[in-house]
Structure formats: C-alpha cells, structure tokens
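In response to a reviewer's request, we include the raw inputs and outputs for one of the modeled complexes. The two entities were modeled together in a single run.
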Amino acid sequence: DAEITQSPRHKITETGRQVTLACHQTWNHNNMFWYRQDLGHGLRLIHYSYGVQDTNKGEVSDGYSVSRSNTEDLPLTLESAASSQTSVYFCASSEQGVTEAFFGQGTRLTVV
Amino acid sequence: KNQVEQSPQSLIILEGKNCTLQCNYTVSPFSNLRWYKQDTGRGPVSLTIMTFSENTKSNGRYTATLDADTKQSSLHITASQLSDSASYICVVSAGNTDKLIFGTGTRLQVFP
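The model returned the following structure tokens for the whole complex.
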C-alpha cells in the first residue's frame, strides 16, 4: 500500500545545530508540504513543493529550507536550530486539485 | 486575512450521544473545505472534502455540511463511540493553490 513516512519520530537537538527531517511518500504525488503544529495554532505551512526542483516558502519559512530532487522525498532542514523551533512537524502529500492530502505520523522535535 | 475558526475549543460527551462541531472561515477565493480527524500522536486523516457546490457529505457516522453563502460548516457525529475521541480540524483550501488553511481544532472526548 502507498504511504507517507517521516523520520525520525522523535529528536532532541541542541541550539545551533543543523537538523534534517525526512519525508518519503510512495503515492507518486506531485504536491508535498511541511507543516508545524503548536498548541494554540492550527497547522502552519513551512514550505511546499509542486514537483521536482520546485520549492516555495510558506507562512513560517524563516530558519527552514527544503529541496526536491525526486518525486518521493522532501527533506526539511533547520539550518541552525532554535528553541522556538521546538514543535511537532508534519509532512503531507497530495495530487493537484481537490484531492485528499495524506499526512505522515509526525516528528516531535525538541531543541534544548 | 484568510482564517478558519472552530468552536467549541473542546467538548465532552457520553458514548452514544450525538454532537455538532462548528467552523467559520474567511478564505477567499474559496476552493474547498475539509474535515480531518487527528488522534493523539498521529497525523490528521481526512473525513470529508466539499467543494462550493456541495452542501452536505457523509462518511459513515460523520456528516459535514457547508453553507458557502455564510461561510460556515459543521461536522455532525452520530451515535458517538469511544474511538471518536480526537481533535477535529476544519481546513479550507484557497483558490487553485492546493494550499490548506487549518483551524485550531475541536478536541472531542467521549466517555463511557
């Protein structure tokens, strides 16, 4: 069965370190998204991609970057982790148009 | 500013009872509205997707309604079960961007 997986599920890192969160989908979807979820906020869009070599900034993109070298993967990199980036991160994928978006299980990141 | 607001913030009901969750949005141009269920520690899972021309859609015991004129939606859960305990998130897609705008969710707890 097709799926979308994130790794790691949990991570603790130190302030200032570079961190990469992985997202891999086997739906063959063109659209991929990264969100963060914090108490009191809905999921907020960090970066998104509509296809290979395409990346776009979302509403909370500062301090994050992504790259899309193939259809299946959209890794999220925190260039220099900050305590404000402690959060739960979700990756999602979808086809274009009014179609269901599928979410990964999430990565809980703690920056100490 | 595009916003999605949900009420109530939390809700406690007894098993077997019905409940209705509300969603108001100020998203323009409107494309579609979705309801997601998010279990604790998991990613959101789609329940329904409705476009402008649809005013009701069901998925088992879940029935969503949409009034595009008043920009309101509701999710009705019939004969609640313990497994319905979760957060229910209203999500609106704007224009033709495939980007999703999330509400903060209603946390539902079903007790025996």
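As requested, we also summarize the result in words. The mean pLDDT of chain A is 95. Residues 25 and 110 of chain A are 24 Å apart (CA to CA).
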